[in-house]
Amino acid sequence: MPSTFQFRSQVAVLMRDSIDTDQIIPARFLTTTTKAGLGKLVFNDWRYESDGTPKGDFVLNQADPETTRVLLAGEDFGCGSSREHAPWALADWGLRAIIARSFADIFRNNALKNGLLPIALPAEAHATLAKDLERDPEGEVIISLQNQEVTLPDGSKIGFDVDPFAKHLLLNGHDELDFLRTFTEATEAYEGSLGSR
Predict the structure, then answer these.
(1) Given CB 3.0 to 4.6 Å as the disulfide criterion, which of 8, 89, 185, 191 pairs with 38?
(2) CA 20, 164, 71, 175 torsion-angle sign
(3) Which of 112, 92, 94 is nearest to 103 (CA)?
(4) Contacts of 22 (CB under 8 A, 6+ apart)
């Protein structure tokens, strides 16, 4: 039975277009094969001074990962090279969804495979959300994957598209390997039946 992928969140606003994967997680940090700790490095070159001091005016340095699970950005989020480290870093910081006008296909696919929900909103709804958050930076959205809708701070609901298989995996807390493992018993039974022929 699917779980509920629904949550209320404040929104970190990073209203830039064409935020590429090298800005999300610079290439020099791609030597690790584990996800843990990458949240400290997300947007590293924008978040920190050259001596490692956090920049006080950068949005993720002002936000609380406990209450801010959504990032709002502009067009073509996640463009550039393919790297799973980008959604890993965003999720490790605490984000569960990215709302943007559009996404690079490779980033969208990597995000969905790693438990991060990319939500593309039409121009009017995106602009409304940006204005709502400008008026009230602590405004909240409600994300419902089950209903495929975002509830904006003003209470209006906007639908979004998501690949049905990716939705199934997210609702069940699975990745593709977990999904394949659900067939282990049936596969072993089938293989066992071959030996008896």
Answers:
(1) 89
(2) negative
(3) 112
(4) 80, 81
Which residue, among 82, 64, 85, has the nearest Cα to 11 in the 3D structure?
64
Confidence check: pLDDT of 21 > 60? yes
**Mean pLDDT of the region 182-192:** 61
CA 53 to chain centre: 26
Type and span of the H or E element at 159? strand 157-159
Q: At what angle do helices 164-171 and 105-113 cross, to 10 degrees?
A: 30
14 part of a folded domain: yes
Residue 129 maps to a domain: yes
Per-residue pLDDT reduced to its tens digit, 6-16? 999 999 999 99
pTM: 0.86
CA distance 177 to 183: 10
Asked whether the predicted pLDDT for residue 174 surpasses 80, the reply is: no
Spatial contact of 112 and 118, defined as CB atoms under 8 Å apart: yes
Residue 188, phi-psi category: left (phi > 0), alpha (psi -120 to 50), beta (remainder) = alpha
How much of the chain, in percent, has pLDDT values that exceed 90? 75
Residue 1 belongs to a domain: no
Tokens, residue 79? 């463009």
For 98, the domain range is 6-195
**What pLDDT does 4 receive?**
61
Residue 93 included in any domain: yes
